[in-house]
Amino acid sequence: MRLNQDFFAGARTALPILLGVVPFAMISGAAAVSVGLSAFEAVGMSFLVFAGASQLVVFQLMSAGSPWIIMLLTAWVINLRFMMYSATLAPYLQRLPTWQKAPLAYMLSDQAFGVSMGRFVTDETVSRRWFYFGAALTVWTTWQVSAVTGALLGKLIPDSWGFEFAFPLSFMALMFGALRDRPAVIAALTGGLVAVLAKGLPYNLGLVLASLLGIAAGTLAETIEARRRRPL
Amino acid sequence: MSAASLWLLFLAIGLGTFSMRFSFIYLFGRITMPEWLRRALKYVPAAVLAALVFPALTHPAGTLDISLNNLRLLAGLGGAIVAWKTRNVLWTLITGMTLLWILQALG
User: Are residues A124 and A13 in the same domain?
Assistant: First the structure.
């Protein structure tokens, strides 16, 4: 019963993370309703997309009246990080058939990735696929239940509370979590300042421009730091 | 926004996001991620999130407003300190929203 044991180990290890998942998912459900989606649409999006930060971004752009294509592109850009997770997890899931890989990939989240990789680097004996499956399914289920709850409760929040201010506040907490080293800080400062300066551009193009320049600045800063450490 | 274009948007975001999650898990052994891409992807969250946060604070009503009358900027700076110290969405929200309501009540 080694396999089931590792499934439950994954689920158990994910439990403390749920303290962050529950409120974030509830906020995303409530935010969907606050920009005018029905509870059904909110839940439908949560199942189709299952990526909180990108969902919140879409709601913010929706309330600003941004065009469809900008909402799509911005959400995709935010979710590009999943390619990095996918590449890192790939060796651990390589022997599975495609029909099993697909649902495991669908459930990939920041939290499932973090919990699993944290264990994989220290524990060689754990069944990787079962541990990851346990962690990912726990996070996914908790996310969906909390998102539905948030969507139902969200109807009770009056407009006068200025709930749309919750968007930048949530992004702020996520942003500080991403500032792990100096190049990341430079990427954030560049992205933020360009976005302020380019705010006047049509179709919210300033956001796309600022993101690209921020990413370029971070990459450049990393290259410069690496050269300084070991001069050619 | 019509219901059809809304669902089409969710579907398109969902399919694209699934493709990104599935990409290397599916293609393992057939293709490896180029080093430049791996590097650039590391900075996506910091750059994009900052690009969303900064203008939301400096342009609360669509125009630049860096003054003490900009309550969202003030409340946002308070929230930023909590975000920096805790990196927790819930605490940042509670702090920022409470500050905004207090400032609005005072103003």
Answer: yes
Q: Which residue has the tokens 């190049």?
A: A183
Partner-chain residue, chosen from B12, B27, B38, that has the shortest CB–CB distance to A84: B38
- Asked whether residue A169 is assigned to any structural domain, the reply reads no
Whether A183 is covered by a domain: the verdict is: yes
Please state, in angstroms and rounded to a whole number, the distance separating the CA atoms of residues A127 and A118.
Answer: 14
Read off the pLDDT of residues A170-180 as tens digits, 9 standing for 90 and up.
889 889 988 98
Domain spans in chain B, listed from the N-terminal domain onward: 1-32, 44-106
Same domain, A134 and A194: no
The predicted model scores a pTM of 0.81
Q: Most A CBs within 10 Å: which of B89, B97, B102, as the mutation test of the A interface?
A: B89
In this prediction the ipTM stands at 0.86
Nearest-CA neighbor of A10 among A92, A146, A97, A113? A113
Residues A17, A19: Cα–Cα separation, whole Å: 5
pLDDT tens-digit series, residues A41-59: 999 999 999 999 899 989 9
Residue ranges, chain A, pLDDT below 50? 1
Best of B18, B33, B49 to mutate (most A CBs within 10 Å, chain A): B49
pLDDT tens-place string over residues A73-84:
989 988 988 998
Whether A41 and A107 share a structural domain: yes
**Is there a single domain that holds both residue A154 and residue A216?**
no
Pick the last residue of a domain from A133, A163, A193: A163
Cβ neighbourhood burial of A141 (10 Å; 0-12, 13-18, 19+): middle
Answer whether B16 sits within 8 Å of A173, measured CB to CB: no
**Shortest Cα distance, chain B CAs vs residue A199, angstroms:** 7
CB proximity A226 to B under 8 Å? no
